[in-house]
Design brief:
The structure holds 2 protein chains of 2 kinds. In chain A, strand 21 and strand 22 form a beta hairpin. Chain A is built from 21 helices and 22 strands. In chain A, helix 11 runs antiparallel to helix 14 and helix 15 packs across helix 21. In chain A, the strands form 5 sheets. In chain A, strands 3-2-4-5-7-6 form a 6-stranded parallel sheet, sandwiched between helices. A 6-stranded parallel sheet of chain A has the order 11-10-9-12-13-14, sandwiched between helices. A 6-stranded parallel sheet of chain A has the order 16-15-17-18-20-19, sandwiched between helices. Helix content of chain A is 34%, strand content 17%. Chain B is an alpha+beta fold. Chain B folds into 2 domains: 77 residues, Alpha-Beta Plaits, CATH 3.30.70; 72 residues, ACT-like. Chain A, domain 2 (Alpha-Beta Plaits). Helices cover 30% and strands 40% of the residues of chain B. In chain B, the strands form 2 sheets. In chain B, strands 5, 6, 7, 8 and 9 form a 5-stranded antiparallel sheet that branches. A 4-stranded antiparallel sheet of chain B has the order 2-3-1-4, with helices on one face. Classes of the chains: A alpha/beta, B alpha+beta.
Chain lengths: 575, 164
């Protein structure tokens, strides 16, 4: 049998797992692993400028492909810098394996240099974690980590590797396990047949059903099944922020995103429905608004791979545990077997009602002498033919990016939906670009968010990662400012950035292209330059100076029902 | 609603911290917790006593089941079960009280397991209510010096069992 050191086992295991890209940052406790990595021809390593960005980049890589993202960092600060990234992935169920160095086993607990209890610190935000105390444990831990990260409800897995287990001089027999079997972990795929049948019968008799599809459907790659199901039964479809793209944004049955900043028609449809078919979403507080007023007449079918998501906030009348693509397939079979079709008359009446809500044109906005953020996103849509992968940061620009760029494909829209991590977008875009070099990848950001991981301009330079950064610059922390304006009497406590850098010069300092634009009539030209053939392989930083007073609407009214919304600065729904 | 939950988990380092962490992280109560290996050394069995309404208990069960190390979870209070807790109690036992403590211990079927000139240490097993009653009775006749309770461990009656 082949004899390898622990450090070599780490790299060989990753190779045998089929890993081609990893994101990381070396340090004392992982130098042996980095030394073994030096020899690898299969694995390309990307040196970030801050460990948080390594995790976000691996996350963007995972979200854009469905593959597991891999991270390698050192102990102590290297590990703790990963925490925000791991928490981000955990909240959105993204498969990651984070390998962190650790002080030698003999020093654990001694407050050694660069020691942190990574197992303890990361425990609440990982799907699982491993501490390898001997080199021989490494291959199995890595095999299990990738299996656990990518199956069931995916999530991040941490492997903590003490320095002595990596010792290059101590060689042990190496064999990468072919299979994993764990008696305590056996995720289900297909739904309970009786429940599926019950669900289809409920759908058959519903007069005002709605399909509410979330990130779980994206993870399950259930695009084809969801489309077929929605079309066959002529169902209105609303997507969550995490589910955008799983059902085509330009499809006539798509009624837009729902929730806090959802469309008028989506929230109205939900509130007035008599049956909600929830596929891989979790009735998050940013969707439901006040729980006691949530969709009073609706029965709920809830399909999710994670039983803890079902009946957590809203009681499910028909719970189904299973993977979305399998369960929807099962439902389609029963639909055929029972010959279920939408009652044409009833469905037409329901669509007529929905269309009347659509006439509200809740996403319309006024134009003026300054660039409206909505117009900037629409221009981005136009100049990318609606085909770019968009990684977003967090704030107003994120909502504009979600509402004004209709995503037709899953994994096209990448954002930190659960944790709401500012600084996520840019490194996530890098990861997505590395995974999809042939595609146009943009980061939609704001002047606040982009400065939270702006150091990665250097990483992009080193590896030629040609992402386009579209910054909507309003000179303030826009979403904070919006809330302060609406709910704090306009007391703008620390929401301004009074020392904005010259982003063009900053981009140029890293040898990238910087473009600033502030006039609506120059927007098209600026985007044309951004996406020109000449700049195809370059990072372009677009600094778009937008109307600083613009708010995101619609917006749900706090403590209200789903359909209680502000529609503009002067209009709100009455109920 | 008081619930006794049994958990069967891999006997691995970190498994217990994940379970305890889950309770603090999600704001669930732990009234008592006992843990030890089973006849199979690769497995640990925990008995947790918690409080919560139906929905909370359902979430607790699901969240426990979701932990990768956990094999089985069962709510013992759903059916007939046996619940036992061990009490060791050290009380003042001098003069007239000495005989009274002995009598009370006998009535409760406790055993005096250590003595000094002025103290008795009594051991008593039973369900939590019985232990409460014993402590209360002793408190009314003598001074309690020290109390240690093991926390509840439990098992289902009849055919029902929790196995890997």
């Amino acid at each position: 049998m082949e004899m390898l050191s622990g450090a070599e086992m780490v790299i060989r295991s990753l190779e045998d797992e089929g890993i081609e890209h990893i994101f990381g940052y070396p340090g004392g406790s992982v130098l042996d692993i980095y030394d073994a990595l030096f020899e690898s021809s299969q694995i390309e390593h990307f040196l970030v400028r801050h460990e948080q960005a390594a995790v976000h980049a691996a996350d963007g890589y995972a979200r854009s492909t469905g593959k597991v993202g891999t991270v390698l960092v050192t102990s102590g600060p290297g590990a703790t810098n990963c925490i925000t990234g791991i928490a981000t992935a955990y909240m959105d169920s993204i498969p990651l394996v984070v390998l962190s160095g650790q002080v030698p086993t003999s020093m654990i607990g001694n407050d050694a240099f660069q020691e942190t209890d990574m197992m303890g610190v990361s425990r609440p935000i990982v799907k699982h974690s491993f501490l390898c105390k001997t080199a021989s444990e490494i291959p199995e831990a890595i095999k299990k980590a990738f299996y656990i990260a990518s199956t069931g409800r995916p999530g991040p897995v941490v492997i903590d590797l003490p320095k002595d287990t990596q010792n290059p001089l101590a060689k042990f027999p190496y064999k990468y396990p072919e299979n994993v079997s764990m008696r305590s972990y056996n995720p289900v795929k297909s739904g309970h047949k009786g429940q599926v049948r019950k669900a289809v019968k409920a759908i058959a008799t519903a007069k005002q059903p709605v399909l509410y599809v979330g990130g779980g459907a994206v993870i399950a790659n259930a695009e084809a099944q969801v489309l077929k199901f929605a079309e066959q039964l002529n169902l209105p479809v609303t997507n969550t922020l995490m589910g955008l793209g799983i059902f085509p944004g330009t499809h006539p049955q798509n009624i837009g995103m729902l929730g806090m900043h959802g469309t008028f028609e989506a929230n109205k449809t939900m509130h007035n429905s008599d049956l909600i078919i929830c596929l891989g979403a979790r009735f998050d507080d940013r969707v439901t608004n006040a729980i006691d007023k949530f969709c009073p007449d609706a029965k709920i079918i809830h399909v999710d791979i994670d039983p803890t998501s079902i009946s957590k906030t809203v009681h499910a009348d028909i719970p189904i545990v299973g993977s979305i693509e399998v369960v929807v397939e099962q439902m389609l079979e029963i639909v055929q077997e029972l010959d279920v079709t939408a009652n044409e008359e009833e469905r037409a009446a329901w669509w007529k009602q929905i269309d009347s809500w659509r006439t509200k044109k809740c996403l319309s906005y006024e134009t003026g002498t300054s660039i409206k953020p909505q117009a900037a996103i629409e221009a981005l849509y136009k100049h990318t033919d609606g085909k770019a992968i968009i990684a977003s940061d967090v704030g107003q620009h994120q909502m504009f990016g979600a509402l004004y760029y209709p995503y037709d494909k899953p994994r096209q829209w990448i954002n930190s939906g659960g944790l709401g991590t500012m600084g996520f977008g840019f490194p996530a875009a890098m990861g997505a670009k590395i995974a999809n070099p042939e595609k146009v990848v943009c980061c939609i950001s704001g002047d606040g968010s982009i400065q939270m991981n702006i150091q990665e301009l250097s990483t992009c330079l080193q590896y030629g990662i040609a992402v386009k950064i579209i910054t909507l610059n309003n000179g303030a922390l826009g979403m904070v400012k919006q809330w302060q304006k609406m709910f704090y009497d306009g007391r703008h406590s620390h929401s301004y950035m009074e020392s904005m850098p010259d982003f063009v010069k900053l981009a140029e300092a890293y040898h990238h292209v910087g473009i600033q634009v502030s006039k609506p009539e120059e927007l098209d030209k600026a985007f044309a330059e951004c996406f020109s053939e000449e700049n195809k392989n370059r990072v372009v930083f677009m600094d778009i100076i937008i109307d600083p007073e613009e708010h995101v609407y619609p917006m749900q009214i706090k403590y209200g029902a789903m359909d209680d919304m502000y529609l503009s600065k002067t209009e709100k729904t009455t109920s | 609603m008081r619930r006794i939950i049994s958990v069967l988990t891999e006997n691995e380092s970190g498994a217990l911290s994940r379970i305890v962490g889950l309770f603090s992280q999600r704001g669930y109560n732990i009234e008592s917790l006992t843990v030890s290996t089973t006849d199979d050394e690769t497995l640990s069995r925990l008995t947790l006593v918690t409080n919560g309404d139906r929905a909370v208990v359902e979430q607790i069960m699901k969240q426990l089941n979701k932990l990768i190390d956990v094999l089985k979870v069962s709510d013992l209070t759903e059916g007939p079960h046996i619940e036992r807790e061990l009490l060791l109690i050290k009380v003042k036992a001098s003069g007239f009280v000495r005989a009274e403590v002995k009598r009370t211990s006998d009535i409760f079927r406790g055993q005096i397991v250590d003595i000094t000139d002025s103290l008795y240490t009594v051991q008593l097993a039973g369900d939590s209510d019985k232990l409460d009653a014993f402590i209360q009775t002793l408190a009314s006749s003598t001074e309690i010096v020290e109390v240690v309770r093991s926390g509840v461990c439990g098992i289902a009656r009849g055919e029902r069992c929790l196995k890997a």
